[in-house]
């Protein structure tokens, strides 16, 4: 039996995303395998980050980050 694939799941390419931040851990770049386009209108991107990462603490403190796909 083949696996049923949702039609919308194959519309966006996935890649390694670079998540950039600055905060208590200084400038930081994290390679994030779980970065996905969700929508073009509005432009939405989902990333999954471990809660113990320096990047997450930087984002929580500064309230900003960058994504390079």
Rounded to an integer in angstroms, the radius of gyration calculated over CA atoms is 15 Å
What is the percentage of strand-forming residues? over 45%
| Helix-strand makeup class | mainly beta
Give the low-confidence spans. Answer: none
Number of helices: 1
Report the helical percentage. Answer: 10-25%
Gross morphology is globular
Secondary-structure element order, N to C: EEEHE
- The neighbouring-strand order within the major sheet is 3-2-1-4
Domains counted in the coordinates: how many? 1
Largest sheet: 4 strands, antiparallel
Task: Report how far apart the termini are.
Answer: 34 Å
Oligomer: single chain
Overall mean pLDDT stands at 82
Q: How many beta-strand elements?
A: 4
Cofactor: FMN
Domain Flavin reductase like: 11-69
Organism: Candidatus Nitrosocosmicus arcticus
GO molecular function, one term: FMN binding
Summarize the topology.
Elements: E1 14-23, E2 26-40, E3 43-47, H1 54-62, E4 66-68
Antiparallel strand pairs: 1-2, 1-4, 2-3
InterPro entries: Flavin_Rdtase-like_dom, Split_barrel_FMN-bd
Cofactor: FMN
Pfam family, one: Flavin_Reduct
Tell me about this structure:
The chain is mainly β and 69 residues long. The chain has one domain (15-68). It has one helix spanning 54-62, and strands at 14-23, 26-40, 43-47, 66-68. The protein has a 4-stranded antiparallel beta sheet. 9% of the residues are buried. The model has no long low-confidence stretch (mean pLDDT 82). Its cofactor is FMN.
């Amino acid at each position: 039996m083949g696996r049923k694939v949702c039609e919308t799941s194959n519309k966006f390419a996935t890649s390694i995303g670079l998540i950039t931040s600055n905060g208590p851990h200084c400038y930081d770049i994290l390679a994030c395998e779980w970065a996905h386009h969700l929508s073009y209108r509005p432009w939405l991107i989902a990333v999954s980050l471990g809660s113990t990462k320096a990047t997450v603490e930087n984002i929580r403190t500064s309230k900003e980050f960058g994504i390079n796909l």
